[in-house]
Specification:
The complex is a heterotrimer. Chain B is of the alpha/beta class. Chain C is globular, with a radius of gyration of 23 Å. Chain C has 13 helices and 23 strands. Chain C is 32% helix and 24% strand. The chains are: A alpha/beta, B alpha/beta, C alpha+beta. The complex binds flavin-adenine dinucleotide (2 copies) and iron/sulfur cluster (2 copies).
């Protein structure tokens, strides 16, 4: 944090790419909220600007900044200065701890009066936790000596065990041995940082780090199922949390691309997945790794008519979309995905974050899931139909 | 990463985008790596050929101009025919990206107007930008509180320099307007249904005029052409825009369309800073990307490819090479690699010898270097005799 | 009436003192207010700590004035406090002398654990050993000058800017008027006495009094960093030397200074070598200073006075500044010079000078500047209208409060174009606004002058991100705006 906070060139590249700027006429934008407010506040205590909370912490601004100003993180410090009503404070304290929310997933949907009381966005629904039985995919297709710690983020741990099991099964048949980490609903700190509580983020992150360290001897690589956690662990921990993770952290889609050739050949023998699909690399995925890998993966897996999403950010922003005051911004951002889905008549969305997936699913009214979910489904189909196709082609 | 790419392009500025486009057009796989956005959204997106001569006098016919350089300029010995094919290609490429330009290549520079009211030469511009062959009367659209487009002063400078009249029509504050809005805020607003309707009503109520209606560059980001078309019908004459200082909507439109096109061509965009390169790899923090060739399109000092040290030494950040010492301000703009092939392939403003600030040749430099590098990586070295000579 | 030559700290301070004694005054300044040394200094309101060993008299005066100014000019002073830090390679002997010296003049210094200081300033070099707090402060030069100007004008004093004194009219060896030159040509203004408060130009003006004075001019270079990296003044606890003070100034921090003899009273452009030299020195305090975003380097010229054989009245003399009555020497009667000194002691200097002038005019009233606080302007609606300069948050309404005499005046009054982007994004906005009252050619010329003024201090510090800022600025000027294109001819 100490470096580059004063480097701003006033070039406004951040402003030109900030997704919130493009839909929210009140939002002062990354340059004013980040380096400019911070500089002023260094000289004299300065009240937080109105609408500072509207920042989704997507970090797109940081990724385009030519001089590496930690814009979003400076904004987070400003959010921390903001005083809230007790209700909002309470709500934010809870949402900054998604691991709590995840542990309470069994409670189901939030009743209407509680929503209003807690200023929870009326439009957003939490999904029913997906438990789904997962069938084994058979013998491993290869062997890879790397032992994988499959990182189960709090959302997946509470709401999408099905995805975790599918991913685990895929990794297993690709020849990896897999351990689930951290093993209980715990958060890397991303949610708290995004909500403007860097202090809580750090303590949450440190707790997670200790848990991961306890199991350190069980894995050589950490594979993530959520782009936000992916970037937090690998890029933000060293820079903003003072934590140095010693093993490589790799998103699932990158490991998938290293799956045995046989796996891809088998999938290739299936007819292409019919209809159009949209691959949406989440904002945090773009910031952490880039764009295009997901699309490539989809094509390789047989989603031939996949089309890369043109939306920068879907507006879910972790718990951002849950907050009533963000309803309109979150909706308008998701609208971009919806427009594209409608115009291409897409059947589904492939995306690298569970929370973004539910948000887009609600906006576009088509299923949105993690690539592991779709890959598993494809492979299962191969197992069920594969035989016949193989005989046909030969 | 699944497939090693054919070419790794480092940099996401105009040069990086162009080299990547050339490679994918030939069916190659590209990994574009960048730690920042590059400069496209910092300017209006007019691609200059050659705007000023060495005495800062405007150049009317840039086609003829290049022959005068010989060995003194990186593009000195490129034939007019070669230039023509490159510009034509860029125009066609833009066409497929839905970046609209005139059908025919310009035969000479036209004049555009800057927010200072100054006339400035322009070569290849998207059709939304205001240009004219001879200075004529114009009608400027004033936008309340848009400090980068103070129409009264602009009109005075315009009339003072050209002797032509510049009338003014004012927009009101729209119901959605907020204090502090810049051109980009307006543009996002005018992309919405509400914004477009509001603007139609405004233009309908304008007192008629006989000159083209010239807006600041605020007419939407993604739906500009259709908006301009309707406005043109309402006004009854040409409607066009003048690019503003950053955030520049024209460049932003180009960047969005260009990158959209590249995404659909399967270009992988890798986010991060390259720390080291070799003949067939680029290493980032914690990972290494492999590819057949590596192209540096890392920009000059602004783009971050070159770094100036406290003592004035200029160093290339990737190879650690010292490229010289800056003594006078002019040195900073034109310093860089001496050759586009040695010690590695270099496209864009990282190459020495061009100074777009002085000469107005940013677009030409981009074409020249990108095509030169492309010939090299695609094994067509012969196409460009001059490569590597200076 | 008294004519004061020079609209810097000394001149305006003197005018204010004379007016409070009901002596009519006119100030004549050849440039803008503060275009001399008073606008090009380090910004330190000395506590005296720097001089307790080397110059006790100056130290005493500083400490006294420090307290007075906080009282009467509070609006232009930030009582940040400061620290003297001793670094490994300095001997303990000096630290002891220093503490004793401070005690001797009653300066409240207190030793503070270095660990505690590190909590408020990060990245202090590991070799910093001891720290002492002192009541240093920040003196905002332009703010104080404009405050003085306001109060002078309120009392009916007149201030002419962009007007140069070119000669003195005298009868029988006695001053009766001055000849001035402004954009409308030369004219004569009658007066009873004239005071030379021309700072570094004092030697030249004294010649018009038929009396030479020997100035010893020394140039000092300073570096401005983009952010307020330190919350208070940081001094090195060592005999006064180069590059040993960092002063937080508004949203910036300034490192200085150097001390190099020079002949030319006009300040010259700082060089990259000087900037580099300062960085080396600064890194003794902050090891990571090479990663601080630098903005510019600037120089000021110290109008120091070389003791000669001239008649001196000990009443008026401090070790630090000198009051000269040229009538008592070989020069004109009714001509005075005020030279040397510091910003911190400008009030005291003015008081001594005014005593001499009052005596000459046979006015018996004594100085009241230590008691009468400077009135601040009635704050109007502060930021109406759109923002012109985003770095320093200067609005259209703010600029519109001052009729645009020049872009420079707007700049020094409002801080427009003084922030991290150095006017990259707002220079043209200012020029276009000025066009409401100026012709296009004048406004564009002023824009060009503003750019050159900015670039003068910017260029020597074009390294790292500041070099990228430069590159962006040039592209904008030449490619986006076509600022200096052919069309002006
Ligand atoms: C304000 C402005 C106005 C302009 N106006 C005009 C005009 O009117 N007409 C015209 O023709 N041209 C104009 N230009 C264009 C200009 O003249 C240059 O030609 C252009 O900016 C150069 O682009 P580039 O692609 O070479 O570099 P850049 O756009 O600077 O791109 C550099 C890229 O490299 C990346 N990078 C650098 N180092 C690394 C690394 N180690 N690892 C990963 N990535 C790295 C950066 O992140 C960035 O993406 C203008 C430019 C500016 C800034
Ligand atoms: C590098 C440096 C750092 C310093 N740091 C500090 C500090 O931190 N704290 C501190 O207390 N002091 C500091 N000082 C000292 C202090 O700035 C000066 O002593 C003080 O500003 C001098 O003010 P002045 O009014 O005498 O001179 P000036 O401010 O130079 O004023 C003289 C004015 O006279 C005008 N003029 C000259 N000739 C004519 C003419 N013929 N007609 C009309 N006008 C004319 C000039 O344009 C000028 O504006 C510093 C000085 C320097 C050089
Ligand atoms: S983090 Fe995202 S929403 Fe927040 S300012 Fe940056 S780009 Fe905008
Ligand atoms: S992108 Fe970076 S340098 Fe440019 S305005 Fe934003 S914070 Fe400043």
């Amino acid at each position: 944090m100490r470096d580059a906070f004063d480097a701003c060139l006033k070039c406004t590249l951040c402003v030109s790419q900030c997704p919130v700027m493009s839909v929210n006429p009140d939002f002062p934008g990354p340059k004013a909220l980040g380096p400019e407010w911070y500089r002023q506040n260094q000289a004299q205590m300065t009240a937080p600007l109105p609408h500072v909370d509207d920042c989704t912490f997507c970090q797109i601004c940081e990724s385009v900044c030519p001089v590496d100003v930690p814009i979003a993180h400076l904004i987070a410090e400003q959010k921390a200065e903001k005083k809230h009503s007790l209700r909002v404070w309470l709500r934010d304290e809870i949402l900054a701890r998604p691991q709590w929310v995840a542990r309470m997933a069994w409670l189901g949907a939030i009743p209407e009066p509680m929503r209003r009381l807690g200023k929870i966005s009326p439009g957003v629904q939490l999904p029913k936790p997906r438990k789904g039985q997962v069938r084994t995919l058979g013998e491993p297709l290869g062997a890879d000596p790397r032992r994988i710690g499959l990182f189960v983020d709090c959302y997946s741990s509470g709401y999408d065990q099905e995805l975790v099991m599918r991913a685990r099964e895929l990794l297993r048949i690709w020849g990896f041995s897999v351990t689930l980490v951290p093993g209980e609903a715990q958060c890397c700190g991303a949610a708290a940082y995004a909500a403007g509580n860097p202090g809580l983020a750090k303590s949450t992150g440190h707790a997670m780090f200790r848990t991961l360290n306890r199991k350190k001897s069980d894995y050589d690589v950490i594979v993530t199922l959520n782009a936000t956690c992916d970037g937090t662990l690998r890029d933000e921990w060293p820079e903003f949390y003072g934590l140095q993770i010693t093993v490589p952290v790799i998103p699932f889609d990158e490991i998938a691309n290293q799956a045995p050739e046989l796996f891809w050949e088998q999938l290739a023998s299936l007819p292409a997945e019919p209809g159009a699909w949209i691959t949406h690399t989440t904002c945090r995925g773009k910031v952490a790794r880039g764009d295009g890998q997901l699309w490539e993966l989809a094509k390789r897996a047989g989603f031939w008519d996949a089309e890369p999403s043109d939306a920068v950010c879907c507006g879910a922003g972790g718990s951002y979309a849950f907050k009533a005051e963000h309803e309109s911004t979150a909706e308008q951002l998701a609208f971009r995905v919806r427009e594209q889905a409608l115009s291409s008549e897409a059947k589904g969305i492939i995306t690298d974050s569970g929370t973004c997936a539910i948000h887009m699913e609600q906006a576009a009214s088509i299923p949105a899931r993690h690539p592991a979910y779709w890959l598993y489904a494809r492979y299962l189909r191969y197992l069920e139909e594969g035989e016949t196709h193989e005989t046909k082609t030969s | 990463m699944s497939r090693a790419s054919d070419v790794i392009v480092i940099g996401r500025g105009p040069a990086g985008l162009l080299v990547s486009s050339l490679v994918v057009e030939q069916g190659g796989q590209v990994d574009m790596i960048a730690d920042g956005l590059g400069t496209l959204p910092l300017w209006g997106g007019q691609f200059d050929f050659r705007s000023y001569d060495n005495d800062r006098k405007p150049v009317a016919d840039p086609w003829a101009w290049w022959h005068r350089f010989g060995d003194t300029h990186p593009g000195g010995s490129v034939s007019a025919q070669m230039w023509r094919s490159w510009w034509q290609h860029l125009r066609d490429l833009w066409f497929t990206m839905e970046i609209p330009t005139e059908k025919l290549l310009p035969t000479k520079n036209r004049g555009t107007v800057t927010p200072l009211g100054r006339i400035k030469p322009a070569f290849l511009v998207p059709t939304w930008q205001f240009t004219q062959e001879y200075a004529g009367a114009i009608t400027l659209v004033g936008v309340p509180d848009l400090v980068d487009f103070p129409v009264e002063a602009m009109a005075r400078v315009y009339t003072w320099t050209t002797g032509m009249t510049a009338e003014i029509r004012w927009l009101e504050r729209s119901p959605s307007w907020r204090p502090g809005w810049n051109g980009l805020n307006w543009a996002w607003y005018l992309d919405t249904e509400e914004g477009r309707r509001w603007l139609w009503e405004q233009v309908k109520s304008f007192r008629r005029g006989s000159a083209p209606l010239v807006f600041p560059q605020i007419l939407g980001v993604d739906h500009t052409e259709s908006l301009i078309e309707v406005l043109g019908e309402l006004w009854g004459r040409g409607v066009a825009e003048i690019p503003l200082p950053p955030p520049s909507v024209g460049g932003l439109r180009l960047q969005r369309r260009w990158e959209r096109w590249l995404r659909r061509k399967g270009v992988r965009l890798v986010q991060g800073r390259v720390k080291e390169i070799g003949g067939d790899f680029a290493a980032l923090e914690g990972r290494r990307i492999h590819g057949g060739h590596v192209v540096l399109a890392t920009g000059g000092v602004l783009g971050g490819g070159l770094e100036v040290l406290i003592d004035g030494q200029v160093r290339d950040r990737l190879m650690g090479l010292s490229l010289g010492v800056v003594k006078e301000p002019e040195d900073l703009a034109s310093i860089g690699y001496r050759s586009w092939l040695e010690p590695t392939r270099v496209a864009g403003s990282a190459l020495a010898g061009c100074d777009p600030n002085r000469h107005g040749d940013g677009g030409a430099m981009m074409l020249l270097t990108s095509h030169a590098v492309f010939s090299a990586v695609s094994g067509q070295e012969g196409r460009l005799e001059h490569a590597g000579r200076f | 009436m008294v004519i004061v030559i020079g609209g810097g700290a000394s001149g305006l301070g003197l005018a204010w003192d004379l007016l409070l004694r009901s002596i009519p005054v006119m100030v004549v300044e050849m440039g803008d207010i503060g275009s001399g040394t008073s606008g090009r200094f380090h910004g330190l309101l000395h506590s005296g700590g720097r001089y307790v060993v080397s110059d006790v008299q100056a130290a005493r005066e500083c400490w006294e004035e420090n307290r007075i100014l906080k009282r009467v000019a509070g609006a232009a002073i930030k009582a940040t406090g400061g620290y003297f830090l001793s670094v490994d390679d300095e001997g303990d002997a000096y630290v002891q002398d220093w503490v004793k010296g401070a005690e001797a003049i009653g300066l409240p210094v207190k030793e503070v654990a270095v660990g505690q200081i590190r909590e408020t300033v990060e990245n202090l070099g590991p070799w910093v050993r001891r720290g002492f707090s002192v009541p240093d402060g920040v003196l905002e030069g332009f703010t104080l000058l404009h405050l003085l100007r306001l109060n002078i004008e309120n009392l009916g004093g007149e201030i002419l800017t962009h007007t140069t004194v070119t000669d003195i009219r005298h009868e029988n060896g006695r001053v009766v008027g001055v000849e001035v030159m402004d954009k409308d040509g030369p004219r004569v203004i009658a007066c009873d006495a004239v005071v030379n408060a021309a700072g570094p130009y004092a030697g030249e003006v004294a010649r018009l009094f038929h009396d030479g004075i020997a100035m010893q001019l020394s140039r000092g270079t300073m570096l401005i960093f983009a952010n307020r990296r330190v919350p208070y003044v940081i001094n090195r606890l060592a005999p006064p030397g180069d590059g040993d003070i960092i002063v937080p100034h508004g949203e910036t921090a300034i490192l200085g200074t150097t001390d190099v003899l020079q002949e030319d009273p006009g300040s010259t452009r700082a060089t990259r070598e000087e900037a580099q030299y300062l960085m080396q020195l600064g890194q003794r305090l902050f090891a990571d200073m090479d990663r601080w975003r630098v903005l510019r380097a600037f120089t000021g010229v110290r109008p120091l006075y070389q003791d000669g054989q001239e008649i001196r009245d000990s009443r008026y003399i401090s070790r630090d500044f000198t009051v000269i009555d040229h009538g008592q020497r070989r020069g004109l009667v009714g001509a005075f010079s005020l030279v040397g000194g510091k910003w911190t002691t400008y009030r005291l200097m003015a008081e001594h000078m005014a005593d001499a002038v009052a005596a000459y005019l046979k006015v018996k009233r004594s100085s009241r500047t230590a008691e009468v606080p400077l009135q601040t302007a009635v704050e109007m609606d502060l930021r109406p209208g759109p923002t012109i300069c985003e770095c320093e948050r200067v609005s259209l309404g703010q600029l519109a409060r001052w009729p645009c005499a020049s872009l420079t005046e707007w700049r020094t009054r409002s801080w427009f174009a003084m922030g991290p982007c150095q006017g990259t994004m707002c220079g043209h906005r200012g020029a276009l606004l000025a066009m409401a009252v100026q012709t296009p050619s004048t406004a564009l010329r002023e824009l060009s002058q503003l750019r050159h003024e900015r670039e003068r201090g910017w260029w020597p510090t074009t390294w790292g991100d500041n070099a990228r800022q430069w590159a962006l600025g040039q592209a904008l000027r030449h490619q986006t705006l076509a600022e200096e294109a052919w069309s002006d001819e």
